[in-house]
């Protein structure tokens, strides 16, 4: 019964989770780029 529920529930959160991870990845890239540019500007 647990396996059935896990299999049924597994595909559902994949979309939002993947979207959240994409946003986090973009945010990390933007933060790194911003930090590098800020360092260049400071120097």
Description of the structure:
Keywords: Membrane, Transmembrane, Transmembrane helix. The structure is a single chain. The protein is built from 2 helices and no strands. With 43 residues, the chain is mostly helical. The chain starts with a helix and ends with a helix.
Short overview:
By secondary structure, this protein is mostly helical. It has 2 helices and no strands.
Strand and helix map with partners:
Layout lengths: L1 H8 L4 H29 L1
**Contiguous helical run count:** 2
Whole-number radius of gyration?
A: 19 Å
- pLDDT < 50 stretches: none
β content, as a range?
A: under 5%
**Integer average pLDDT:** 81
Task: Indicate the structural class.
Answer: mainly alpha
Counting DSSP E segments of at least 2 residues, the number of strands comes to: 0
N-end to C-end Cα span: 62 Å
Shape: rod-shaped
Q: Kindly state the percentage of residues in helix.
A: over 70%
Q: Helix and strand string, N-terminal first?
A: HH
Taking the sheet with the most strands, its summary is: none
